[in-house]
Amino acid sequence: MSLRLTTGGRLIDRAKPLSFRFNQRWMTGLAGDTLASALLANDRVMVGRSFKYHRPRGIVASGVEEPNALVGLGEGARFEPDQRATTIELFEGATAISQNHWPNLAFDVGEVNSWLARFLPAGFYYKTFMAPQAAWARLFEPIIRRSAGLGRAPDRADADRYEQAYAFADLVVVGGGVAGLTAALAGARAGQRVLVLEQTAHWGGRAPVDGGVIDGLGPDAWVRNAVKVLEKMENVTLRLRCMAAGLHDHGHLIGYERVADHAPQTDAPRHRLWRIRAGKVVVATGALERPLSFAGNDVPGVMLASAVRDYVVNWAVAPGQRTVIVTNNDDAYRTALALLDAGLAVPAVLDTRESLTGDLVQAVRARGVRVLEGKAIARVRGRSRLRGVVICRQDSAGATAMSETIACDCVAMSGGWSPVVHLWSHCGGKLLWDASAAMFRPDPTCPPTGADGAAMAVCAGAASGALGLADCLRDAHKAAGGTGKPPQAKAPTEAPIAPVWVMPAKAGIEARSKMWLDFQNDVKVSDVQLAAREGYESVEHTKRYTTLGMATDQGKLSNINGLAVLSEALDQPVPATGTTTFRPPYTPISFGAIAGEARGDLFQPLRRTPMHGWHEAHGAHWEPVGLWRRPYCYPRSGETHRDAVNREVLATRRSLGLLDASTLGKIVVKGPDAGRFLDMIYTGVMSSLPVGKCRYGLMCSDNGFLIDDGVVVRLSDDTWLCHTTTGGADRIHAHMEDWLQCEWWDWKVHTANLTEQFAQVAVVGPNARKLLEKLGGMDLSKDALPFMTFAEGTLGGVRARVFRISFSGELCYEVAVPASQGLAFWERLMAEGAEFGVTPYGTEALHVMRAEKGFIMIGDETDGTVIPQDLNLGWAISKKKVDYLGKRAQERAHMADPDRWRLVGLETLDGSVLPDGAIAADAGYNGNRQRNTQGRVTSTYYSPTLGRGIAMGLVRRGPERMGEVIRFTAEGRLIAARIVDQVFYDKDGEKQNV
Amino acid sequence: MKRYSVFAVAREAMNWHTGWERAWRSPEPRRRYDVIVVGAGGHGLATAYYLGRNFGITNVAVVEKGWLGGGNTGRNTTIIRSNYLQDPSAALYEKARSLYEGLSQDLNYNVMFSPRGLLMLAQTEHEVRGYKRTVNANLLQGVETRWIGPGEVKALVPIINIDGPRYPILGALYQERGGTARHDAVAWGYARACSAMGMDILQNCEVTAVRQANGAVQGIDTSKGPIDCGKLAIVVAGHSSVLAEMAGFRLPIESMALQALVSEPIKPCIDVVVMANTVHGYISQSDKGELVIGGGTDGFVNYTQRGSWQHIEETVRALIETFPVISRLKMLRQWGGIVDMTGDRSPILSKTPLGNCFVNCGWGTGGFKAIPGSGWAMAELVAKGEPGPLAADFGLDRFREGRFIDESVAAGVAH
Q1: Same domain, residue pair A779 and A654
Q2: For the complex shown, is ipTM > 0.85?
Q3: A341-359 confidence digits (pLDDT tens)
Q4: Is there a contact between A583 and B203 if contact means CB atoms under 8 Å apart?
Q5: Do A409 and A305 fall into the same domain?
Q6: Residues A746 and A823 in one domain
Q7: A863 touches chain B (CB under 8 A)
Q8: How many CB pairs below 8 A link A and B?
Q9: pLDDT, tens only, A516-558
């Protein structure tokens, strides 16, 4: 059984017991425990079920590489599935449940898969479930979906908050072990701005558990001193519980800080995502131990040797009372010594190597432990809890009748160590296979490079393959550019590792079908060999066919074992197989942290006009337009939106309406070459526009398609103001800058987007002039300010630009005032306009009125496939200009095709409103058996002015077919409509020109 | 080729699965083939498969620089739909979708096509109008889609937040027979079927030159030596421009990184595919339980297969806003692929200035769903030397003539 030892435990505080619940049972742990160490202290070795076969799963590791001990943590709006027990710091009241079983952990119906494992090898589902055709989606897939997955999804919105922050450093040291601290000291002493990130809550990494002497001190004492020195240095920032998740191009490092996971009661954000720009990254991320592949290596009680040692030394937890050690290297002997020091039994050490003489081996032998050379585990006894191991020779085929069984409740296995090279590899750092150490380590000649072509990361210590303590510190010191002497270390000498990928070497197929590689996804040695046999020879094929390394540990535990097994199966050296791609994040990071504060009301910035609050106070129904919200209409009590829109249209046409037009883009273009520039940007001529005049302009893409429209005003000799659509302002500004910066960089033009600097009000209707004259200050008579002109002055004491333009067909003045005066000006207009029944109107009334006038709307009449000529806007295209953006494109054969769909007005025979998006079918079918079509509706509204439906549409040769009736399909119905002129109201424009 | 079935699996289980044969052969190149397809991704393999199946042309090699299915076929978000607006697109993608329905049986390889339904959310009035137009267009094109209201959206996707403070869900374009498939299996299934017809799939065989004489293709030089051919089909997605340059012509293509990511696996919580174009995010849940999430493209040209971090943030924000329960789930893995973008964001299936050389590229961000239809149309083009009705509108000449097939209005950013 596993239990808490009476003494020891460098990370726990025995004075602070903590209560927690696992599967509804209250248990006690200690401050400093992880959930895993606390579970082990409560004799909970089996904590979950595997993904595919639902086999019993126990804790294997003590850190981020843990594949098995995944739990659902928390409750309600703080429930989270798939949390690793080995990296959860225990807190008072923690609630965890095990996953992937029904009805409970001990008895799981899904375990039937385990008994059928022989029939369910890698990729069996590609070969089955094909008949009958419908059965996959209806029958098999739903069953597979239910039995797959791990934890359940949360069922409500997250109660926690998250934040994001930026950091900049010359040197970012990832990993707070002795290598990281050595690198940090070296960098900091050289005057660099240093940031140190450590993913756990403790400095020092493995060294305090593994032992040795650094500068005459034990590792614990040395680490304390080093941290004290670093804390005092102003150029150093130390950050615990902060993992480097990914290294992206240009030294962009993502840090994932778990601020309050260990203290959920506090009011701090739960996670903080750091976007770090690093001059250079020192990857001091250490190494991870590999398991060994023997039959039954997945039975709860079989653990990594390093993890067993961690639990004993760090948390004073004995994973078992009798621990057999199986290894192919010297490091695992440290585990034997730690167990012996804690008074626990080590019945045997099984070492696959022969003629062992290393310091650590001798030390273990000296304690009276049986060290068996050339030996291996043939199989294990026990199913949900280990009871013993049957041993054999490593160079044999397995156990015989004579084989010895050693009773034990824990196996500590070590297959060697793999440097953690993830960050190095994320951005293209290459690896080389070190055959003598049996590991992939960074190739220092092929680092990831930054914008300057120089290395942006360097691996240090165990992460670069320097596993011995002295080598590790020397390497780390050098990696950070340290001068002078590195810390001096003493540690036992170790004999070389002997790679072992299958145990025993000649194991038969039945045994190999029980040797787990990927513990979570149930991938066994036999599966990888099957993949190789079937031709899935690329390491990527094997991964995808077997799901090796696709579990939540992303292959940290045993990918290298899998690659080696594949290499043996293909009879090729390991480097010829290579690795799969290392992708961020290093361990999974919460979506909450990735999103940061941007949720709910803060999801996207909300742009408000100066009059936004007024609209809100007056009952505006909002419509999102880009990041703006614009009033769609202002319904009064008892009014539907439709009623409100009709009222607003009629009031405006009869007397006076006000529109908040502040969102319209206002881009100022200025400079000696501004006229020439605008002549290229617009289809018309803007350079010849006299000062004080307005002109309607069209902008096309270089492919000829209409992208935006608006009124251009010449403010002064070298200054133009370009109005754009609301949605187009930023896009068009970027479009202008794109051409200026990339193509016409020598033209003397500046642009500025002044959209938010002005509030703009459209004063619309027969009484518009009367209202503005009441304000006084400017002559707004027809003679002083005729249609399509502009004047600057003071209106009612407010500086104003007044434009005589109209999008409604009525007499209209668009008045721009400084944004700070916008609300006051609007309120003044409302007050002074009361005698005319002034009515604020929204975007829908705007749409209805423009459609009544036959004006186009970007996004309705255009969709990225429409050219101005299609919209009968040839009059706005200069025939004289040599060039403008889109001109050449518009001359292409298809663009000049007389059969193009062109804009017309449409009206139904009964006055009803045509449905949105209706399409007119034509006779016959095309080569793909689709109905031929001849047109579509682009805008359709009920016109309160005319008392019937009106629409515009694009119809093949439309303008040539006036009066013709065609049938539109929509909502499964056919609706007849007559082709008519697109201008439904005031065809001669008399009303706007008074 | 030994047939796959539940009985075959049971039979092989008796031998502990040591008796399975290779899914595809790994041959050495012959000196000459009637047709060489460059690129053993889904599109290339499907082209080869339908050359054999529909036209009896089996003296075919599929040449691949790396491992088959290793480009965008193996790194997409596996969405299959055909609710396109423009007629030529709808025809091609609907052909593909309908072939997907029977593909497992056709190939005797379970590609796990799962018509679980697909929603494109409308979150602005403009999108409502756009999707209604698409429904009307689809009706005339023979593509089954319909417009559904927010209530039905909520019923199909219980975890969706239909009253978001910024962009409430106004409805959706629903394609009930859209869905997903297992992307790797599509490549593997075609590869196995091609190999069984006697075609050679040459992996780790990089093309270094395209040889030509008298204006027509003669063969290719590869890292495994020169190979002659009667016809050459270039089907290499992100590296199309590179191959075109070898063949002596230019393509109107830009290559960019597109990203995707998956969550840790969880029990089923979303059964349909949801695309939200206003907020830029799309999501489905794989049979393994991972949420499969599509991200954005970088706004600059590159070949890194990585992509910029801020797109991941934008995508995840959009999805948390739409599905608040996912906030506490974790991102397991993010990656990128290289997509080749044309001027109208629609593909190219075309003859080229070089005789007997054909090109299939430009699928942009949406190639996976098209694989069977693309292969079908491309095989016809290669076999006959002229495009059939499916490919007719996707020729290179459309850029010269201005005959664009632009889906941007219906598909927003992602398609």
Answers
A1: yes
A2: yes
A3: 999 999 999 999 999 999 9
A4: no
A5: yes
A6: no
A7: yes
A8: 334
A9: 999 999 999 999 999 999 999 999 999 999 999 999 999 999 9
